[in-house]
Design brief:
The structure holds two protein chains of two kinds. By secondary structure, chain A is an all-beta fold. Helix content of chain A is 0%, strand content 51%. Chain A has no helices and twelve strands. In chain A, strands 2, 5, 6, 10, 11 and 12 form a six-stranded mixed sheet that branches. A four-stranded antiparallel sheet of chain A has the order 3-9-8-7, with no helix packed on it. The radius of gyration of chain A is 13 Å and the shape is globular. In chain B, the strands form two sheets. In chain B, strands 2, 4, 5, 6, 9, 10 and 11 form a seven-stranded mixed sheet that branches. By secondary structure, chain B is mainly beta. In chain B, 35% of the residues are buried. The radius of gyration of chain B is 13 Å and the shape is globular. In chain B, a hairpin with a 6-residue loop joins strand 5 and strand 6. The chains are: A mainly beta, B mainly beta.
Chain lengths: 113, 112
């Protein structure tokens, strides 16, 4: 069965610093990959997605993610973090022929000024 | 467009009580989903409906039932609530199972 691992439960970065959130998946073929963000008390908002093609994908709010097949990873990056980026981030995977998303446990991002 | 709406936003139940969580989407999506979110566990799929007229179990269906009332609405019912069902419940929809899902704001349920 496919699974998603987000190794970091909490990450704290300074405002203006760069950010990388890690995501590894377990699945035999190339899946569909997603990053979602959840602000406190809110639902999940889609940041970006990868289906095929260019392995570096751009999303909203200045985020990008890179799919690396050899490492089964889909890490999320932002060059300069803003205080408003403080939230919980979820990586999710869907198999190409399945119809369900599998979510990682999430990474809570704290931004210090 | 309101997107995905859920009612109620908050609910407190006593053990053994029943209730229905409502979800509606106005994006003409075919697929709809119910998840629960518990600390440190991400989101887990309870039930989904790939298209109007069909429903299937997800990862954690025990204690729940669903109804796909029409293309817009997908409800989740707890017949006899248990403290283990204390959670935040999210409804989501997508054009089809192949596409990204859009989430509602959630219902925070406490069972005492």
């Amino acid at each position: 069965a496919q699974s998603v691992t987000q190794p970091d439960i909490h990450i704290t970065v300074s405002e203006g610093a760069s950010l990388e959130l890690r995501c590894n998946y377990s699945y035999g073929a190339t899946p569909y990959l997603f990053w979602y963000v959840q602000s406190p008390g809110q639902g999940l908002q889609l940041l970006l997605k990868y289906f095929s093609g260019d392995t570096l994908v751009q999303g909203i709010k200045g985020f990008e993610a890179e799919f690396k097949r050899s490492q089964s990873s889909f890490n999320l990056r932002k060059p300069s973090v803003h205080w408003s980026d403080a939230a919980e981030y979820f990586c999710a995977v869907r198999t190409r022929y399945g119809n369900k998303l599998v979510f990682g446990a999430g990474t809570i991002l704290r931004v210090k000024s | 467009n309101a997107g995905v709406t859920q009612t109620p936003k908050f609910q407190v139940l006593k053990t053994g009580q029943s209730m229905t969580l409502q979800c509606a989407q106005d994006m003409n999506h075919n697929s709809m989903y119910w998840y629960r979110q518990d600390p440190g566990m991400g989101l887990r799929l309870i039930y989904y409906s790939a298209s109007e007229g069909t429903t299937d179990k997800g990862e954690v269906p025990n204690g729940y039932n669903v109804s796909r009332l029409n293309k817009r609405e997908f409800s989740l019912r707890l017949e006899s609530a248990a403290p283990s069902q204390t959670s935040v419940y999210f409804c989501a929809s997508s054009v089809s199972a192949a596409y990204e899902q859009y989430f509602g704001p959630g219902t925070r349920l406490t069972v005492t």
